[in-house]
Amino acid sequence: MLLAQKPASINWESVALNPSGQHAFWVWFRPPAIPYGLMLVVPASLFSDAQLLGQLTLRQLVLLAGIDQERILGWIVNGISYDGAGGTSPFLDHPLPAPPAGVNLEVSVWIEPIPTAATVPSAPVYQPHYAAQGTTSDFDQRLLAAIESTWQTIQQMEMRISSIRKDLASNLSRLNSLNRDLNSDERRICDSKDIQAWTDARRWLRDSIATLSRSVKEIDVGTTSGAGQRYKFEEIYRKYAVPRQPFPGLSQTVHEFESYQKTVQNVLTSAQANISRAGRDAEQRANAVLTRISAKMRSHRR
Question: What is the pTM of this model?
Answer without folding.
Answer: 0.61
